[in-house]
Amino acid sequence: MPHRLLSRAAMLAALALSPAAFAADKPTIVLVHGAFADASSWNGVVDILQKDGYTVVAAANPLRSVASDASYIGDVLAGIKTPVVLVGHSYGGAVITQAAEGHDNVKSLVYVAAFSPEVGESSAGLSSKFPGSTLGPALAPPVPLSGGDKDLYVQQDKFPAQFAGDVPLKAAKVMAAEQRPITAGALNEAEAAAAWKHIPSWHIYGTKDKNIPPESMKFMAERAKSKKTVVVDGASHVVMISHPKQVAQLIEAAAKGE
Q: Where are the beta strands (DSSP E) in the chain?
């Protein structure tokens, strides 16, 4: 069953008014989804983490711009009164890299098939740094927005193979229909902060990722001096859906500082 998405006000109110809900000896896990996805992409990971006693917040990433998305996630972090493990998937990695700045409760960063940009880098630039991404040809014609930017979607018939090659086809088709767009501006926006420089990070990605070249993610993990990097043989871009146990295990390792 999909996890219900809360408005920012409702989410912050719930976090502020329910401190007893937090496990006293465990950090809160904040999950930030990426482009062409939503918070339900974390369902399998959430189930495992909750069973293991963790409080989990699967935030609704607006996918409008790195600056505004990071500000939104920063507001979520400010409402949490426990240590936090901040987790990002894909473009969500760029968001958490900036959002963690100035929030001392963020103790660990986890990058799940994600970007971890340096200041001045963009998600689009990192995608093309090494060969292997086939996302460009799989995109649908951009949708012009009244503010001057453009929304990007993956063509539905190409979505399963491009985005979720190791997910059952029926489920991948549902994901294709439910995908949330990202603006072209967000993917090309320069990063303003790089929290991985002073917050320890953990990384996981698959060898069959067609959105972000595995070589690019290896480069970023090594640059960030990743505490632990897990490479899942044959996993697609949505490794958290196809291999939730391995992703949850890495998040729990980050929660314990292992």
A: 28-32, 56-59, 84-90, 106-114, 143-144, 150-152, 182-183, 201-206, 228-232
Domain range list for the chain: 8-256
Cα 72 to the center of its chain, rounded Å: 14
9, burial (CB in 10 Å: exposed 0-12, middle 13-18, buried 19+) = exposed
Q: What is the pTM of this model?
A: 0.91
- pLDDT-derived band at 99 (thresholds 50, 70, 90) equals very high
pLDDT, averaged across the chain: 93
In angstroms and rounded to an integer, the radius of gyration of the C-alpha atoms of the chain is: 17
Please tell us whether the domain made up of 8-256 is placed in CATH 3.40.50.1820: yes
Whats the size of the chain, residue-wise?
258
Tokens 């959002």, located at residue? 99
